[in-house]
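Q: Predict the bound structure with 2'-O-acetyl adenosine-5-diphosphoribose.
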Amino acid sequence: MSDLIEPAADVLSTAKRAVALTGAGISVESGIPPFRGKGGLWEKVDPMKVAHIDAFLDDPETVWNLLIKDMKTLLDTARPNPGHAGLVDLERLGILKTVITQNVDGLHQMAGSSDVIEFHGNFAWQSCLDCNQRIKTSQVDLAQMPPRCSCGGILRPDCIFFGEMIPQDALVRSQRVSAACDAMLVIGTSATVQPAATMPYIAKDNGAVIIEINPEPTPLTSRISDLPLLGGAGSIMPRLIQAIRRRRASP
Ligand code: OAD
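A: Predicted complex:
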């Protein structure tokens, strides 16, 4: 809600080690559809059939054709939006330390965020299932399905499929920065996928103020969000930054 922008700016103006947890919603205004809700990817395809590691290993060609190929086409050209840029501004203002993202699109790094924990891996690279050689996704030739490494092995993206473990270092660092933050911005996530959805609870339990940015309420909104800002990240973030800058400018 717009009237909560000012209280959120008050909190962030004095925060020194804020953390952001982001999800698919922050990239919607970059043209990447979310997973859940209206127009979400999981409305069109069943995640257990196309995004589970067993489905990929059983039939990599189908998973490449139904999921990975379209993702590559979208992510090859996607660019950061004002939501991503706002987090870079917060870092430069000395407020935000770390972005924990469930996204695999690399847009936080492209925008300029310097400490990004990729909780679900990233789509920028592929690994060969046989020899482990890694190649850039942008260099993958889609003429052959499924795409293969020079050794003949099948390529898979370096992101987490359902049924796979979260990378240990990403999990441990996320828990640590969540426990230590003084404010957590929860942006564009339905907060329904574990263990990422636990991070705001860790932050709240350790005294952080929870600021949520999302056009829709989530399970966090009524439970632990102190300041739910209802709206798209691309419009809320610039207003929030402006309100913080006004506070910094006034003596
Ligand atoms: P979801 O698709 O579950 O949720 C997207 C959220 O973004 C929803 O709460 C929307 O209301 C919100 N949203 C939509 N437009 C927005 C906008 N312009 N600005 C801000 N928010 C907006 O995405 P995640 O929570 O990221 O995992 O999903 C978590 C995980 O589930 C993903 O990482 C992926 C998926 O299955 C794996 O693939 C392992």
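A: The pocket of 2'-O-acetyl adenosine-5-diphosphoribose is lined by residues 23-26, 28-29, 34-37, 40, 47, 51, 102, 120, 160, 162, 188-190, 192-193, 213-216, 218, 232-234 (CB under 6 Å).
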